[in-house]
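Workshop exercise sheet. Pairs work together: one partner reads the sequence aloud, the other fills in the structure field after running the prediction. Swap roles for the next sheet.
Pair: D.N. / O.F.
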Amino acid sequence: MNPDDPLLKILVCPLDKGPLTLLPADGALYNPRLRRLYPVVDGIPQLLPSSGVQVTADEHERLLDPGHGR
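Structure field:
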C-alpha cells in the first residue's frame, strides 16, 4: 500500500469510523485518536478490531513525528 492508493480515502477505523493515517515505514495504518495501529500484510489492511494494537504514549509521539520513517 502506498500513499497515493485511492483506497486510503475510504478506509476507516473499525472502532470509531474515523480516518486512518498510512505509516509506510511501519507497514501499518494508524488511528491517532484511539492510539491504535493496524497492520498492512502483503498490501492488505487488517482492519478487524482484534487486529489493532494499542500503542504507548511514547510510541504515539514517535508515530506522529513528521520525521518518522525517514
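Discussion prompt: The beta strands are 21-23, 28-31, 36-41, 44-45, 53-54. What would you look at next?
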